[in-house]
Amino acid sequence: MTEETIFDKILRGEIPAHKVYEDEHTFAFLDIAPINKGHTLVIPKNSTRNILTADEETFAHVMETVRTLSPKIKEAVGADGITIGINNEAAGGQEVFYLHAHIIPRFENDGRKHWGGESYKDGEAEATLEKIVNQLKN
Ligand code: 5GP
Questions:
Q1: Confidence class of residue 60 from pLDDT cuts 50, 70 and 90?
Q2: pLDDT at 2 (0 to 100)
Q3: 6-137 is classed CATH 2.40.10.10
């Protein structure tokens, strides 16, 4: 069972939020601490912890709402681009354990950097790939 979170309370209207959009399956509201203005969170009405627990339909509904809202939010705030993010588990940056997609308006030179990547050492890409491909067989 998924534990109660602040987003359950927002969905039930017990805690106020700036509602951006709502349909049968999803709810979207402004992030209380935006990375840039217009930063919006999309959650499913069918509560689930994150993408690791979500069923196909629930996740598809969230992504469909992300697709619908992204160009509208971009235009509304005059952004140059949009970053979509989903954090999963504490190690993945998740703080609220209720599946949510971040729609983050981005501006040229807004200073919000992506994290840096590192190169694979010899053989590491192949070894990693083999592990993933084996998991896909399960
Ligand atoms: P996470 O790190 O779990 O992906 O992000 C959680 C997000 O929820 C954060 O960006 C945070 O600002 C936002 N948040 C946390 N509590 C509230 C709240 O009570 N209301 C709203 N609107 N956003 C919240």
A1: very high
A2: 57
A3: no
Query: For ligand 1, is residue 93 a contact (CB within 6 Å)?
Result: yes
Taking the CA atoms of residue 43, residue 76, residue 105 and residue 51 in that order, the dihedral angle to the nearest 10 degrees is 20
Q: What is the DSSP letter of 89?
A: S
Given 39, 61, 100, 102, the catalytic residue: 100
Cβ of 94 below 6 Å from ligand 1 = yes
Interval 86-124: pLDDT, tens: 999 999 999 999 999 999 999 999 999 888 999 999 999
Q: Cβ contacts of residue 95 below 8 Å, gap of 6+?
A: 87
Please confirm, yes or no, whether 100 is among the known catalytic residues.
yes
Domain ranges of the chain: 6-137
17 lines ligand 1 (CB under 6 A): yes
